[in-house]
Amino acid sequence: MDPNEIEDTSDWLGSPSRLETVQHYASMLEEDVQALKRELRAAKENITGLIQMNDQLSADLERKRIWMANLEAETTDQLAKIQSLSRVVDQKDMKIRELEALKLNHRR
Fold it and tell me: Coiled coil located at which positions (predicted)?
């Protein structure tokens, strides 16, 4: 395009000068930078909150694992006692049957 064909609007009333246009653009960029800084600050606060929540949940998980391990150990102990008592009951029943058999044999 021929430079003479471009309309020069610099002398129009109310048209911003090149300097005013650059200053306005710089002002808009500064506002954008400030908005991004606010968003970044908020994101950092969110991340900090998420890290704290994660730490709390990790601690809770560890406590629950310890609790479960204790329950498992307690359950194993109780199961061993039940099995031992069951063997004793079985032995008692066997002795009762033997004694009843002996008693029947003596009566004959």
Answer: 19-102
Closest by CA to 23, choosing from 12, 31, 35, is: 31
Q: What is the DSSP letter of 16?
A: P
**15 in Cβ contact with 9 (< 8 Å):** yes
Q: Please report where in the chains the tokens 């194993």 appear, as a residue.
A: 76
pTM to 2 decimals? 0.55
Q: Which residue has the tokens 């021929």?
A: 2
Q: Cα separations (Å) of 73 from 38, 59, 86?
A: 52, 21, 20
Map tokens 């008592």 to a residue.
85
> Could you tell me if 43 and 50 are in contact, meaning their C-beta atoms sit under 8 angstroms apart?
no
pLDDT tens per residue across span 68-98: 999 999 999 999 999 999 999 999 999 999 9
- Give me the helices (H) in the chain, please: 18-107
Please measure the distance between the N-terminal and C-terminal CA atoms of the chain and give it in whole angstroms. Answer: 135
